[in-house]
Write a structure and sequence with these properties.
Largest sheet: 5 strands, parallel
Distance between the termini: 38 Å
Radius of gyration: 15 Å
Oligomer: single chain
Order of helices and strands: EHEEEHEHEHE
Shape: globular
CATH superfamily: HUPs
Strand content: 15-25%
Number of domains: 1
Bound molecules: adenosine monophosphate
Structural class: alpha/beta
Length: 147
């Protein structure tokens, strides 16, 4: 039996997200593990702003912005061949939702990037750090180099 049976990939669509996704996919393949994917909707960067403005996303937000996020999520999930039942696009605070979801679906490994939108200057971003501290399963933080 493989070390891991069910891997949860957390994605935030940041610059190096695809690197994190492809490592999770390879790991799932070699481990013959199920692969689930989660993106937590909290806020999204405004396009075409050089200073990285973000806006809060709520259930009442402009549908167009939401549709863009959903489409990006489905595209990545399709590329990775993730089953429909293993796709989780949920509202809330990323660190909390990710640690709760991993228990709900009984995944035994979470794969995150070492940093994403919230931790560019850090060795470990705030979401990655919180998941590492609070998840009851193993966590793989894929080390991302700054561009
Ligand atoms: P951060 O710690 O926020 O810089 O992001 C580190 C990693 O946490 C990212 O590379 C993702 O793997 C994950 N992550 C951050 N935000 C989210 C989110 N909203 N939904 C899912 N995963 C996330």
């Amino acid at each position: 039996m493989s070390v891991y049976q069910h891997i949860l990939l957390a994605i935030d669509f940041s610059e190096h997200g695809i690197e994190v996704a492809s490592k999770a996919k390879s790991l799932a393949k070699t481990s013959q593990a199920d692969l689930s994917i989660v993106h937590v909707l909290d806020n999204i960067p405004m396009p075409d702003t050089s200073y990285g403005t973000i806006i809060s996303l709520t259930e009442d937000s402009d549908n167009e912005l939401l549709e863009i996020e959903k489409a990006k999520f489905m595209e990545v999930a399709d590329q990775l061949g993730v089953a429909q039942a293993n796709r989780w696009l949920i509202w809330g605070a990323p660190k909390q939702e990710i640690t709760e979801l991993v228990e709900k679906i009984q995944a035994d490994l979470i794969v995150v990037g070492s940093h994403g939108r919230h931790g560019l200057a850090l060795l470990l971003g705030s979401t990655a750090n919180a998941v590492l501290h609070h998840a009851r399963c193993d966590v793989l933080a894929v080390r991302l180099q700054d561009a």
